[in-house]
Amino acid sequence: AAGTVPRRRPPRSDMGRGLTVLLLPLALLAAPARGEGGTAAAEEVKIEVLHLPEACSPKSKKGDLLNAHYDGFLASDGSKFYCSRTQNEGHPKWFVLGVGQVIKGLDIAMMNMCPGEKRKVTIPPSLAYGQQGYAQGKIPPNATLIFEIELYAVNKGPRSVEAFNQIDKDGDKKLSELEISQYLKEEFARDGKKRHPSAHDEILADIFKKNDHDGDGFISAKEYNVYQHDEL
Asked: What Å distances lie between residue 229 and 24, 156, 219, CA to CA?
């Protein structure tokens, strides 16, 4: 069922939200089953713009951190299977565009979208949950999906060049344990949430476990920069 309309809140800084995405991958409608190969080329996402604000900047691109509300419906009978307004106290969802944190069809549907824009998009099964469907999300096999999306904010993503350079205090193009430790302390102080004293060390260790692929004790620009920016 649809939830109540949330209070609009100004988006927090991209760096503050960036910490969350850097550490914990979002489970926001990520597809447990990829679209079926061989059919995607013949099918595409259909986009209907419901509202386009006069000021349309910046437009969303791969790697941007987006803040949006959306409702999901089954095209077959119009039943609603997802409503972001009924989760997380009605706050809009934050996710990075174009990197698989949402189903492929949504990654495509929300490209070149501007803050304040509303879209209705139709996503074929090959770009959603394919032949397997998604039982946990009440999505049957071979389901065409419809989403009504309202985009609130487009920020630089957490793995942007700007974010890397902000953490890389000495400018050596690699992130040391000390640099990331200091970054965590600053972000913890910024958001003001109460955490167990051990949280800092646990998160720091997890960051290096997931990002220091060569085990040299540093996170290089290449290891950090999963979105392949040319500037690094």
From this structure: 21, 12, 16
pLDDT tens for 109-131 read 999 999 999 999 999 999 999 99
Q: DSSP code of 211?
A: H
Dist. CA 208–CA 199, nearest whole Å: 14
Angle between helices 199-211 and 14-23 (to 10 degrees): 70
Q: What whole-number distance in Å separates Cα of residue 117 and Cα of residue 119?
A: 7
User: Do residues 62 and 141 both lie within one domain?
Assistant: yes
> Which residue carries 């167990």 as its tokens?
196
Say if residue 104's pLDDT is above 70. yes
Model pTM?
Answer: 0.61
Domain that holds residue 196: 161-220
Question: Does a structural domain hold residue 99?
Answer: yes
Non-local (6+) Cβ contacts of 170 within 8 A are 176, 179
DSSP for residue 173: S
Strands 80-83 and 46-51: unpaired
CA 47 to centroid of chain Cα atoms: 20
> What tens digit of pLDDT does each residue of 30-48 get?
554 444 444 444 579 999 9
- Asked if residue 59 has pLDDT above 90, the reply is yes
